[in-house]
Each structure stands twice: as C-alpha cells, then as structure tokens.
Amino acid sequence: MIELKGLTKVFDTGKARLTAVDHVDLSVPSGEIFGIIGYSGAGKSTLIRLLNGLEKPSDGSVEINGQNITAISGPKLRKARQKVSMIFQHFNLLWSRTVRENIEFPLEIAGVGKEERRKRSAELIELVGLEGRDNAYPAQLSGGQKQRVGIARALANDPEVLLCDEATSALDPQTTDAILDLLVDINKRLGLTIVLITHEMHVIRKICHRVAVMEGGRVVELGEVLHVFQHPKENITKTFVAQVTETEDSAETVRHLREQYPEGQLVKLIFVGDQAEQPILTQLIREYAVEVNIVHGNISHTQRGAYGTLILQLKGTADEISKALAFLGAHDVQTEVMGDA
Amino acid sequence: MLETLFPNVDWADMWEATLETIYMTAMSTFFTFVIGLVLGIVLFLTAPNQLWANKIVNWLTGAFVNIFRSIPFIILIILLIPFTKFLIGSIRGPNAALPALIIGAAPFYARMVLIALKEIDKGVIEAARSMGATTWTIIRKVLLPESKPALISGITVTAIALVGYTAMAGIIGAGGLGTLAFLDGFQRSREDVTLMATIAILVIVFIVQFIGDYLTGKADKR
C-alpha cells in the first residue's frame, strides 16, 4: 500500500544543512494502523508530509497504491492528495465555515455537486457523532468535537490513507481515548490505512498494529507493537515503553519495595499476549505451597493483545518458590527475581 | 435657527459638495479595495516559503507599495497631474481626483491586506493543500473568507482616510466639501461655511465607521 524507499529530506537553510529524514525505508500494508513515534525534531512531521507531497524529498521515493507521489505534480498530485487525507494536531478548521461547510470543503475542491455534498456531509456528521451540530462554528466546539470535524473532513473524499499528525496531542486524556476509538472504528469499518505520528506511547499502544521509532531522522526500531513492548532494543524505545508500562524496576523503586515487603521474595512477571488473559496466578496458588501477595501490577492493552507486568511477593520454602518459578517459566511468563528480602 | 448660526451657507451648494465627497470616497474606496487586495495577495503569496514564492515579484511589489505609501498625498496629487490629464482629460472635478486618491490609498490598503493574510493560521492553508486545493481555490475559499473581518475593518480605516484625502484634493479643485471649505469658507473668511463642511465630513466618517464596524462584527465567527 505505502512503500517508502531511501526517503531522505535535507533542509538547506543556506547556513546549515539539516537532514530531517534520513534514508527511511518503510512498507505499510493496506488496512494497517501504523504508528511513528519520536520526540520533536526526530523528523516524523517531515516524514508524514512527504507522504502526501506537502514536502518534496531530496532523495528516495514514496509510493502509495502503486502511484509514485514524488514523481507527480500539479493536477495529478492534487488528485492524489484527495485519496491521502490528513488530520492535524490543531485541527486546522476554517473558522469562517460551519461544521457542515468545513466537511464539504474537500468535496468542493473535488468538484462534487451541491446536493451530493449535502448528502455526504450528513453521513459524515453522523459517522463521527456530531449530529445536531451541523451549523455550529468551530469556535463553538470543544477540542474533541473539532477533531471529529477534522476526521469527517478528511474522510469526505473516501481516502485510501489517513495521515494523523499528532492528532490527539492537543486533547485531554479522555477525549484522546474517544478520538482514538473513533479512528479504530473507522479503520475497521472502512478498511482505511492509517499512518499516525505521535510522541505519546499511549497512542501507539492503544491503536497501532505496528510501530516505527524515529530518532535523528532515522527509523531506529520497527515492529509489531506487542513485540516492541516486550523486547524494546534501543534506549529511546525503552523510554517510550516506560511511558505506559511504568515498569517499577528502577533501583530506587526496588529498594523501596523491599523495605515495604521485607519477607519472602519479590518477583517481577511479564505477561505478553494470550498469557495475560489466562488464570495462571490461580493455578500457581492452588498447586504450590506459596503465599502470593500482589505488590504492583499493570496491564496495557494493545490492538494485538495485552502486555502486563506484575510484581509479586512470594512467601514459602525456597524449594516451593523455585518450583513456582519453574511453573511460571513453563507457561512462557518471563520472570525476574528482584532479589531476596 | 440654522439661518442665524450659518448665515453664509448655501444649502444647495453644501448638499452638492457633500454628494461629490461621497462620490469620490465611494469610487476611490471601491478601486482601492480591488487594487489593494490584488497587491496584498501578491505580496503575501510571493513572500519566501509561500505558494508563489518569488523574490523579484515580491521585491518589485513591495517597492511600489512602499514608495507610493510614503509620498505625502498633497505632493502625490501634484506629481500625478500629467497622468490624470492623460487619463481623465482634465485635472478639475471629482473624477480628476480619483487617480491620485486610488494610487495614494491602494498601497496603504495593500499593507493592511498583507497583515490580515499573515494572521491566518498557516495550518489552515496546509490543510487546504493537503486536500488537493489549487492556489486559486486557496485564495478564494481560504485566504479571503478567513481574513474577512480584518479586510473589512482595513477598508473602513482606508475609506475614512480617503474622506480626508478628498478634502485635500479639494484644495486643487477636485470639488466636494474640501473645495467648498477652502474657496468659500477660508478664502472668503466665512467661518460658518468651513464649520458646516467639517460637520458634514464628520457625519460621513461616522457613518462609514458604523457600517464598517457592523460588517466586521457580522463576518467574525471566531
């Protein structure tokens, strides 16, 4: 669906040369929600703008649905952009137009007739849950509602790809979740391919199938979201993963936990995917003579399964504890002994 | 009452002069709006990193605007006498004042248009581009509607300045309240005529301001 080959963008400001995107190769299949995460300045904004030709690459190519975006210009590029639409961090609605008129704007650009526009905008308003707000101006809407208008507007011309430029970064956590749910719903209902950029791992975890981590214009890590959560390789990825899992394994926390739970043994369990949904703990308690005390727990749900950590205090004989650990290991639960109390 | 306060005022003359001033203001405001808008849009779009980024056109337009904005109006009228003669065939009467009024005010308005357009959120223009809009569509459906309140309040300020300019043009014989106040009032020492002409000008200015404020408020949905 989307193929990036050796994509490079160098900004030449006269004084300095800045490589914003550095030889990026990516391939996003149709219907996938693909996330790109990175700190500001990592090149993700430039990368997403290369996808619809808002920026021209210095080198490399972008192919969307077999069409080379980098090689076309003028009317052909404008036509292609109607199939690769975009939503923005600050919504970028026209304040001079009502909700309905904003949604009809891309249809006007595409030359759709008035009646058809009216019909389409009514459908879209319903799709994004803004019934009754047709004639409101953006100034009268909340941030979440504005982004819903942005999404409806982006969907107007039946795009194949939706690009999300930090689409939830200006929203509060609750509204963020509602907008993300809407994106997943659209992805499933319309089979739309979604590419989103963000600096929030929460967004990646919640809706993405695969993730690319960007740093210094390069993709430093790429994979299934669950896999990346389970085995982050790069330091930057570990930092991002820690944003949502809050793994309690800093020396400080471990020491603190040990002080609080001086007896027995502290064990950290990492569940991934299916195991997170199995009653492994119940079995453990039934079959082994150990006392189990849950000290800390955390489960993150991703689009392709759950990922969780659990810190347990196990009390019992050394023999029983090691048997219990072996049992967990046999069920593919990663265990990590956090030291004797 | 009026006869005692304004013994020397010929009301028919005063009314005719008022109409001439209104005519000059309306015509020059209209052409100033059109020309200033075009110049302002060209200035905006040819600036670096804009849709028509072009150093030469931007520099030339900017130079034209700055030069004509800087020439004092009374001198501009005199400088433009040959041009006016060529264009209108005469240098007297309300029509003869128009070229100078427009050339003096359009660059002024062009600057206001530029400021108004710069106020537009860049993201909105980017959004329109991402939808596949042509530059022409962006001008018509994004730039103009999104800057409408500022464009209207700008042309209001310009129209009021133009009322003042017509009075100045009156001194060299353009007609209107300026000529009346200068020839009939000042040169013949009839202060009441000057005063009445001033009141008439003030009324015109207040009406223009009122209409401008009303339309600006109506256009602003922010």
TrEMBL record, chain B:
PROSITE patterns: ABC_TM1
Topology of this chain in the membrane: Multi-pass membrane protein
Transmembrane feature ranges: 22-45, 57-84, 96-117, 150-183, 195-216
Keywords: Cell membrane, Membrane, Transmembrane, Transmembrane helix, Transport
An example Gene Ontology biological process: D-methionine transmembrane transport
GO CC, any one term: plasma membrane
Superkingdom, taxonomy of origin: Bacteria
Main subcellular localisation: membrane
Family: Belongs to the binding-protein-dependent transport system permease family. CysTW subfamily.
This protein's name: ABC transporter permease
Source organism of this protein record: Planococcus maritimus
